Amino acid sequence: MIALKNVSKWYEDFQALHDCSVAVEKGEVVIFCGPSGSGKSTLIKLINGLEDFQKGDILFKGKSIRDRDVRLPEWRRRIGMVFQHFELFPHLSVLGNLTIAQQKVLKRDAAEAEHKAMALLDRVGLRAHAGKYPSQLSGGQQQRVAIARSLSMDPEVMLFDEPTSALDPEMISEVLAVMVELAQEGMTMLCVTHEMGFARQVADRVVFMDAGTIVETAGAEAFFSAPQSDRARDFLGRLLL
Amino acid sequence: MGYNWNWGVLLQPVATGEGATYLGWILHGLLLTAALTLAAWLLALLVGTAFGILRAWPSRLCDAIGATYVSLFRNVPLIVQFFIWFFVVPEVLPTAIGDWIKSITPSTQVFVVSVLALGFFTGARICEQVRAGIAALPPGQLQAAQALGFRLPQTFRHILLPQCFRRILPPLTSEFLIISKNSAVASTIGLLELSGQARQLVDFTAQPYESFIVVTLAYIGLNIVILRLMEWIQRRIRLPGMMGA
C-alpha cells in the first residue's frame, strides 16, 4: 500500500535520511521507533508530502508521489495524519473541527458531515463535547478529537507522529485505546511512538531507526524478544529497564 | 489675556448665508471625517489583507510583491502620498481616465482621493500585521490543514486568517483610531472635514479657542465610538476558554 524506496533527504548539507526503504501492506500496523533525532518523524511526514526529499521514491498504491499528475491535496486527503501537538483548529468547535474539511474538501453537505462527525465522536467517546472548543478539553481529549477529525476524511492509511508524547501519563492510555481499536479494525497504520507496550500489543512490524538510517525491520515479536542489531538492543534495554 | 470668549458664536448663522450655523459646519465636518475614516479603514483592511497574504504565501515572488508595496507606501510621508494621489496620479493615468477623474465634482474627487491615500498608506501597516499574525501561528496549523487535503487558498481562508485576525484585532483597532486622526491631512487638498472646518471657522469668526475646543471634543467623541465598536467586535469573536482575543 505504501512503499518508500531508497529515500534520502538533506537539510542543506546535513543528511537527515539515508537510503530508507519500507513497504507497508494493507491492514498492517508498523511502528517506527528509535532515539530522538533519528529521522522517524521526518520519514512519516514525507509520506503525505509535508516534507520533501531529494532522492528515492514514495509509492501509495503503486503510484509515485513524484508523478506529474499527482495533486498533493488529493493525495493527502486519502492519508490521515495525527500530530504530536494535536493541531486542532482553536477557532472552531469540536464539531467544526470535524466537519470543516468534510465540507470544504470532500464537498459533503452540512447534515452529512455533521452526522459523520457525531458518529466518530461517539466512537472516541466525546459526543458530549461536540459543542466545546479545543482549549476547553484536556490533552487526551484533544488528541482523540484529532484522530476523529482525521478519520472523518475516510483515509485509507493513518500516520501517527508521536501521538502521545505531549500528553500527561494518565491521558496516554485513553488515546492508545482509540488507536488499538483502530488497529484491530484493520486500519493500515504507520506510527512513530515511544510507547513500547502499545507497540507490542498492536504492531505487525517494527522499524528501528538511528541517525537517519533504518537499522532494523522485524516482526514485532521478533524485535522485542530478540533484536538483531546492537543499537536496537541497547535502545530497548534502556527503555524497558 | 484679553481674549473675548463667545460660545454663542457656534449657534450663529454662517456668514456665507446658506442657512447653516457654525456648529452645523462642525457637525458636517465630523460626519465627513467619520465617513472618510470608515471607508479608508475598510480599504486598508482589504488592501492590507491582500498584500499580507502575498507576504505570507510560500512563494518568493509573492513575498517580493508584498514587500515592495510595503516599502513604497510605508516610507513616504502621508502628506506626500496625498499630493501624489491628487496631483500626479490623474496625469499619469491614460488620458481618458484622467479626464474622467477631473470631470467628477471636486468635493467627490477630493473625498475619493483621501480614501485612496489613507487606505493604501494604512494598508501597508496592516499588511505587516497580517503577515506577522500568520507567521505567529504554530506551523502545525498549516500542516494539519494540508494533511486534511485543504488547498493552500482554502487553508488561508478557513484556518489561518480567522486565527490571524483574532490575534491582530488590538493593532487593527489602533490603525482605525490612527486613521481617524490622519484623516485631517485631507484638509490640505481641500476636503472640509473636521479640522478643515475648524480652520474655516477661525477664518470666519475669529474665535480660534472655541472652534478648536469643539473640534477636539468631536475627535475624542469619534475615537470613543470607534473604541466601543472594536470592543464589541472583540467580544463577539472571543473564543470560549481563551483569554483575550
Question: Can you describe this structure in just a few lines?
Answer:
The complex is a heterodimer of chains A (241) and B (245). Chain A has 241 residues and is an alpha/beta fold.
Write the topology of this structure.
The complex is a heterodimer of chains A (241) and B (245).
Chain A: E1 2-11, E2 14-24, E3 29-33, H1 40-47, E4 55-60, E5 63-64, H2 72-77, E6 79-82, H3 94-104, H4 110-123, H5 139-151, E7 157-161, H6 169-184, E8 188-192, H7 196-202, E9 205-210, E10 213-219, H8 220-225, H9 230-240
Parallel strand pairs in A: 3-8, 3-9, 6-7, 7-8
Antiparallel strand pairs in A: 1-2, 1-4, 4-5, 9-10
Helix pairs in contact in A: 3-4, 3-5, 4-5, 5-6
Chain B: H1 22-56, H2 60-74, H3 78-92, H4 95-103, H5 106-135, H6 139-147, H7 152-167, H8 169-182, H9 194-205, H10 208-237
Characterization of the model:
The complex is a heterodimer of chains A (about 240) and B (about 240). With about 240 residues, chain A is α/β, with parallel strands linked by helices. Helix content of chain A is about 40%, strand content about 25%. Chain A starts with a strand and ends with a helix. In chain A, about 45% of the residues are buried. The mean pLDDT of chain A is about 95. The model of chain B has no long low-confidence stretch (mean pLDDT about 95). Chain B is mainly α and about 240 residues long. Chain B has a single domain, classed as MetI-like fold. The interface of A and B includes residues 48, 50, 76 and 77 of A.
